[in-house]
Write a structure and sequence with these properties.
Blueprint lengths: L9 H12 L3 H14 L4 E7 L5 E6 L6 H6 L27 H7 L2 E7 L6 E7 L2 E8 L4 E7 L6 H5 L4 H18 L4 E6 L2 E6 L4 H9 L7 E7 L3 E8 L11 E5 L2 E3 L2 H10 L12 E7 L4 E2 L10 E2 L2 H18 L16 H7 L15 H4 L2 H6 L4 H11 L8 H18 L2 H9 L5 E3 L3 E6 L2 E6 H19 L4 E11 L2 H9 L1 H6 L3 E5 L2 E8 L7 H13 L5 H19 L6 H13 L13 E5 H7 L2
The structure holds adenosine-5'-diphosphate and magnesium ion.
């Protein structure tokens, strides 16, 4: 039998390597930015079309390449950064694997121009799917420029699995921000489809963070500084009250390289323990400097995971220096329910037994008068009518595709039908009389077989949610003009997200403009209250920031956050009529057993449990 083993041809090996290094347009941006930094660039411009699917262009003023290097850089394992094994253990550069350019050239159309400082002419190379199409001298500025087009043109499986432009561009800005935050001394810019999204002149660290996050962040930063023999820590954490429901603002760097680490994240979360609500994430920008021989960057092809020799020690240094900083800036533990927006109140209280809950009740306000919910809800649409209504009206916007709503409702209906026990429905009929509120959180309602227990805030969330959905289907939703427009500084990302979703936001009753990263709101959905408006808008911004939310889902996610905001403030259950009103309205909702975020609203407290206590 003849030999079976063959060496893979280079272009196939490169394609395989590309699968590891280049997963999406964002990975190309990361690799090219890192190369420009290693080349000593002081200015790097990024220009993207269609979330990188059409064009990724990166222009630097770094040291450039000779004509020989210009061609060689596309070969596998071609690197100027490592020449002997020891170099690998003391990396001062970002690159070392010599893989990125070979990988990119294997799966895209690449055009590169480069010129060394002092050289008369530069080199211009065109390479497509690892084949050199052209290689000639050319007049070009000092430095290097790359144009990457038709990414994954020969790997259809990859190309087809790229996500929407919003998601892919989100990854690009993530990579861009990580690099920009690691190198405040370098001038970066980012354009997308012709508009400038970032222009970050060379500056100091704090200013760079503020330039990236938005002006409002300046007051929120608490500096961190700690020097030990093993590691130097520098950077900032965000004050606890700006902790978020999403992981957005968490950045760890070591020797100017962004990396991810569950272990160190844990140290940071621990430092904030007791200062922020459960299931929220502190913000931080932590820069470590450490002897390069004490870390191993080579554990993952994309170089975002790093091994540390002394990780336990570093863990405790992070923990103590952040606690110290938070203490020094007098950030005392505060916990109040206005901040707790996930509504898992009993759970949050369990871990904080000493803190008295403070729910401010606005006794003037009746949550059920201001919404159009009652009249629409009392029509008591049957399940199929309801779906029918959605089908016939649709949403008429590109953002919210009718089918997505149908799918959403069908899925939910199925789930709820399974989970509502018939016994519970019988109980409901009785459960409007003699009900009372316990601990400002639960309504206990006497029933045939004991008590129904209703989670009041979740109930309100459900009622508001349904009322908005129904009026959203039939009419534009009720909005209230603000006497004084609400102004809010946004980060670049937030500003972009708001603009991209402007038409859905409009339909939901928000009207306003974003100029220069400042949002000015003139009108908001009527169910929101002015007092908590700023927080409500923060919630909306967080929802918009969720990359995983695809366009069709956005509208119902936004309605969910509006409902949560409305429930946050509207706990006005000072007398039995209010309580009764709430119960009636809840039972008119189709999915009264679960809140829009799928949490249980109703349970029973069986008489037998009480009887057992007296046996
Ligand atoms: P690595 O960065 O791991 O060395 P790459 O494939 O990313 O591997 O790059 C290969 C080589 O090409 C680099 O080592 C460097 O010498 C050269 N190079 C790449 N990009 C640039 C650039 N923007 N300016 C100057 N040289 C570059
Ligand atoms: Mg590289």
């Amino acid at each position: 039998m003849s030999d079976l083993i063959k060496l893979l041809p280079d272009h196939i090996a490169n394609q395989i390597a590309a699968g590891e290094v280049i997963q999406r347009p964002g990975s190309v941006v990361k690799e090219l930015l890192e190369n420009s930094i290693d080349a000593g660039a002081t200015k790097i411009d990024v220009n993207i079309k269609d979330a990188g699917k059409t064009l990724i262009q990166i222009v630097d003023n770094g040291k450039g390449m000779s004509s020989g290097d210009a061609l060689l850089c596309f070969s596998r394992h071609a690197t100027s950064k490592v020449s002997k094994a020891e170099d690998l253990f003391a990396l001062a550069t970002k690159g070392f694997r010599g893989e990125a350019l070979a990988s990119i050239a294997a799966i895209a159309h690449v055009e590169m121009k480069t010129r060394l400082e002092g050289a008369e002419v530069g080199q211009h190379i065109i390479i497509e799917g690892s084949t050199v199409k052209s290689n000639e001298e050319s007049v070009t500025p000092q430095g290097t420029s790359f144009e990457i087009k038709n990414l994954f043109f020969n790997v259809p499986a990859r190309r087809n699995f790229l996500k929407s432009d919003k998601v892919e561009f989100g990854h690009i800005t993530d990579e861009f921000e990580r690099v920009a935050l690691a190198h405040p001394d370098i001038h970066f810019s980012l354009h997308h489809n012709g508009s400038e999204l970032y222009n970050l002149p060379s500056t100091v660290l704090r200013k760079r963070i503020v330039d990236v996050l938005g002006k409002k962040s300046n007051d929120r930063l608490v500096p961190i500084e700690e020097t030990t023999d093993i590691v130097t820590l520098k950077g900032f954490v965000l004050k606890p009250e700006f902790a978020k429901k999403t992981r957005g603002e968490q950045f760890l760097f070591v020797n100017d390289r962004f990396f991810k680490s569950h272990y160190f994240n844990h140290a940071l979360n621990k430092a904030f323990e007791g200062l922020i609500p459960e299931r929220s994430f502190p913000g931080y920008f932590l820069y470590m400097r450490i002897d390069p021989s004490k870390i191993d960057v080579n554990v993952h092809p994309t170089k975002t995971e790093i091994k540390f020799e002394e990780e336990k020690f570093i863990y405790s240094i992070i923990l103590s220096s952040i606690r110290l900083a938070l203490g020094k800036y007098n950030i005392a533990p505060t916990l109040d329910f206005d901040q707790e927006t996930s509504f898992d109140i009993p759970h949050a209280m369990r871990s904080q037994p000493a803190v008295e809950p403070q729910i401010k009740v606005n006794t003037e306000y009746n949550p059920f008068q201001s919404t159009s919910g009652r009249s629409s809800l009392s029509k008591g649409k049957s399940s199929s009518n309801f779906t029918q209504a959605i089908k016939s009206e649709g949403f008429g916007t590109q953002e919210a595709k009718q089918e997505d709503w149908e799918n959403f409702y069908e899925i939910k209906e199925e789930k709820d039908n399974q989970e509502i026990s018939t016994g519970l429905i019988e109980e409901e009929v009785q459960a409007t009389f003699g009900s009372f509120l316990v601990k400002d959180s639960y309504i206990l309602s006497p029933s045939k077989s004991g008590f129904l227990v209703i989670h009041a805030r979740r109930a309100i969330e459900r009622i508001v949610y349904d009322s908005i959905i129904i009026s959203f289907i039939n009419n534009p939703i009720q909005s209230q003009q603000l006497l004084f427009p609400l102004q809010k500084e946004l980060s670049k990302q937030e500003a972009r997200n708001w603009k991209e979703s402007a038409s859905v936001l409009n339909q939901l009753g928000f009207s306003g403009e974003v100029n220069d990263d400042e949002l000015e709101l003139n009108a908001v959905p009527a169910v929101l209250e002015e007092e908590t408006l700023s927080k409500s808008v923060d919630q909306i911004l967080e929802t918009l920031a969720h990359k995983e939310i695809e366009k069709g889902e956005l509208a119902h996610e936004l309605v969910g956050s509006i409902a949560r905001s409305a429930a946050m403030k509207s706990l006005n259950l000072s007398n039995s009529e209010h309580i009764q009103g709430l119960i009636e309205q809840l039972f008119q909702c189709e999915n009264h057993s679960y809140s829009p975020s799928n949490k249980k609203i109703i349970d029973t407290l069986d008489l037998s449990i009480i009887e057992n206590k007296f046996k």
